[in-house]
Input
Amino acid sequence: MDKKHHISVTGIIIKDGKFLITKRAPHKKAFPNMWTVPGGNLELEDYISLPKDTNSHWYNILEKVLKREIKEETELDVENIKYLTSMTFIRPDGEPGLIISLYADYKNGEVQLDADSIEYKWASLEEAKNYELIEGIYQELEMLDKILNGEKVGEWSKN
Output
């Protein structure tokens, strides 16, 4: 089994000590009506038409993808994007997927959801416990909360 991975990025947006979570629309195939954070797929169009940063490479593509996805899904702009963790899974079509979880500071804008989300909330870590988050998202919020409080954080853990 030598399949290429589908690559996605997600972003936890931080504003005034709270995290933006969004509720997926009921028509979504994966995790309908569950809460998550914005994100989406890396597409060739995200960089192919841009000038290369070296003779052969494009840099900061995940950051560009995240900014694009957040703008499309919420109308927000973000800055100071950083790495949090990553995960893999097998998609319903049998193809492997890789999700890279990032976090960023809110820069500007007012939340205006696209058709794939039906609600949003700026939630504290404690408030996030009350939402039906996609598995693993709460632990990511916990990791980020520790980072923001100056604690050292290792790898993602279910506990």
Remarks:
- Helices lie at 61-74, 125-128, 137-148.
- The radius of gyration is 16 Å.
- The first strand starts at residue 6 and ends at 15.
